Amino acid sequence: MPHLKHEKAHGLLPGLSGGRIVCGIDEVGRGPLAGPVVACAVVIDPARLPRGLAKKIDDSKKLAPAVRQSLHDTLLDCVSYGIGQASVDEIDEINILQASFLAMQRAVEALPTKPDIALVDGNRPPRLGCETHCLIGGDAISLTIASASIIAKVVRDKIMYDLALEHTVYGWETNVGYATPEHLAGIKRHGVCAHHRQTFRPISQSLSITD
């Protein structure tokens, strides 16, 4: 289960008084064929966490949607956070890895207080303007990264739900842009739209066939 051992090892103190500001960062949406990539940066003050909340937090992918939404709503009231995203156009222009890093940079910039240290899920550090440490599988072992994954997932899913109201043929209200059979069938029947990542297969292949 996620914990605060890594944060405390880097100087996090209850009340954030006299210690170092440590944020956890995660992104959601590298793999989908459509929609932005969204990142969240979270700073947790252990003194503000409601009793029992830490035991409920986990990697967002392991949580049922209703549980994830409930945790998201609770976290917004007791942590400091920043949201950043990179658009489909930016993904196509600079590639998904660099767009993910850009979303992380924007998430850190959106924090109310600049962090001293960032813990990032993964094995490649973005340039954040502060000391940065990568944690492979960080959303399973770091409470701040797991919290960031929950908030980022809920935010991105909401973006895709809203886009599904306008683009009804791809099933984004359930697949949130991933390459499910329903999404691929929608592309085959109706083509792609402006929210698809043109450099991703099979989008690029569909465009070539259309051209």
Automatic annotation (TrEMBL):
InterPro entries xrefs: RNase_HII (IPR022898), RNase_HII/HIII (IPR001352), RNase_HII/HIII_dom (IPR024567), RNaseH-like_sf (IPR012337), RNaseH_sf (IPR036397)
Reaction catalysis annotation: Endonucleolytic cleavage to 5'-phosphomonoester
Family matches, as Pfam families: RNase_HII
Cofactor(s) this protein cannot do without: Mn(2+); Mg(2+)
Annotated RNase H type-2 domain residues: 20-211
Enzyme Commission numbers on file: 3.1.26.4
Keyword line: Cytoplasm, Endonuclease, Hydrolase, Manganese, Metal-binding, Nuclease
Binding locations of a divalent metal cation: D26, E27, D121
Cofactor note: Manganese or magnesium. Binds 1 divalent metal ion per monomer in the absence of substrate. May bind a second metal ion after substrate binding.
Enzyme class: hydrolase
Domain of life, source organism: Bacteria
GO molecular function terms listed in the Swiss-Prot or TrEMBL record: RNA-DNA hybrid ribonuclease activity
Subcellular location: Cytoplasm
Regions crossing the membrane: none
Family per record: Belongs to the RNase HII family.
Physiological role: Endonuclease that specifically degrades the RNA of RNA-DNA hybrids.
Name of this chain's protein: Ribonuclease HII
Organism of origin: Dongia soli
Protein encoded by which gene: rnhB
